[in-house]
Amino acid sequence: MKFNTKTIHGGQKHDPAYGAVMPPIYQTSTYAQSTPGGHKGFEYSRTHNPTRQALENAFASIENGEYGLAFGSGLAAIDAVMKLLKPGDEVISTNDLYGGTYRLFTSIFKNFGIKFNFIGMQNASNIEDYITENTKIIWVETPTNPMMNIIDIKATAEIAKKHNVLLAVDNTFATPYLQQPLDLGADLVMHSATKYIGGHSDLVMGALIVKDKELADKLYFIQNASGAVCGPQDSFLALRGIKTLHVRMQRHCENGRAVAEYLQSHPKIEKVYWPGFESHPNHEIAKAQMKDFGGMISFVTKGNDYNEAIKIVENLKVFTLAESLGGVESLCGHPASMTHASIPKEEREKTGVVDSLIRLSVGIEDEEDLINDLKQAIG
Length: 379
Ligand code: P1T
What we know:
Layout: H1 3-9, H2 50-62, E1 67-71, H3 74-82, E2 90-94, H4 99-108, E3 115-119, E4 135-141, H5 153-162, E5 166-170, H6 175-178, E6 188-192, E7 206-210, H7 213-226, H8 232-242, H9 245-265, E8 269-273, H10 283-289, E9 296-301, H11 306-315, E10 320-321, E11 331-333, H12 345-350, E12 357-361, H13 367-378
Parallel strand pairs: 2-3, 2-4, 4-5, 5-6, 10-11
Antiparallel strand pairs: 1-7, 6-7, 8-9, 9-12, 11-12
Ligand P1T binds at residues 73-75, 98, 100-101, 141, 145, 170, 172, 192, 194, 204, 206, 323-325, 339.
C-alpha cells in the first residue's frame, strides 16, 4: 500500500460487531469476563481499548513501523521513552528542541540520574564526540522546533548503530507524509499527535512507533505500568485526522512555500528559517530525506527588535496568536515567551531563539489571505 492509501486504510478493519466503517468509540473502562481471564482480548482500557488499538495500528502503518503506541500527550510519549533508562545512562539530544521536551529532560529525568548532552547535530559527525559507554539514546528533532535545523537521519542512524545506541526521532514537524525516519534507520519515531496528525487543534496526544518487537514490548509495559494513555474519544478524532493527513500536508507545504518566499522578500524581515530555501545550511539533506518542506517557518525582524515582533503577532488577524501548531488554521507564536520559555535565555539564545523570533504554523487557508494578513501586520 502506498502512503495516501495507508492514511485511510492502514491497519484498519471494519468493526466486527456491525461492520461500522469507522471504529466505534469504545467509551468503556472495562470488559466483561466469563471466568477470570476469559475475555475477548480486552480486560481494562489502560492496557487496551479497541478504538485506541485501531489508532495504534494506523500509527504503525503510516510510519512504516510494526508497532504503534498512543499516549495522552506528546510529552507522555517522550516520558515513556526516557523510562527505558536507568540512573547513570546518558542521552545526546539536539540543542534546539521543543521547550517542554527540554524541561522534561532537565527538570525531571536529570533528577533521576540521567545525563543529557544538548548539542548541535547539523553536522552528524559531531555526535560521535559525545558518545560514551553510558550513552543509550540519541534524541533528534528534525526539523527542529523552532529554528528549523535539519539533522541527517541516515547519517545519525549509522553512528547510532555503530555504537549500539537507540536513535529516536521526534517527527512532529515533518509528519510521515514528508519523512519516514524508520526507513532511514531510526529505531523509534515519536509524535506530538496534537499537531499535524490530529490536524484540527482539538486534541492532545502522543505517539510512538517502532519496528523491533523487544523494544515495543518494553514500551507497552511502560505504557501500561505508567498509564499515560489517551481516551477513546481522542483516539477516534486522531484516526479521523490521519485520513486526511496527506491532503492537508500538501496544502500546508504549498502555503508554507508561498509565506516563506513572501517573508524572505520583505524589506523589514532580517532572516527567514525554512528548509526549502537553497540558502538553508542543510537544504540538500532536507531535499534528500523529505518529500517537501512543510508549513513551519520562523523569522526575525530587521534590527532584531522585540517590540516590533510583539506588534506583528498582535496585529495578525488570520494567524491566531497561540501555542501549538499543525492544525488547519494558521497560528503564530513568540517562542521566547511561549513555547520555549522554559529554556534559560542564555541557552535558547545560543541556538537562535532570540526575543524577536516569531514562529508561524501555516495552515490550509487561501494563500492570498495569509499573505495579505502578513502584509498588514508587518506593514
Ligand atoms: O504538547 P504535547 O502533545 O505534549 O507535545 C510536546 C511536543 C513534542 N515535540 C514537539 C516537536 C513539539 O512541538 C511538542 C509540542 N509543541 C508545542 C506545543 C509548540 O507549540 O511548539
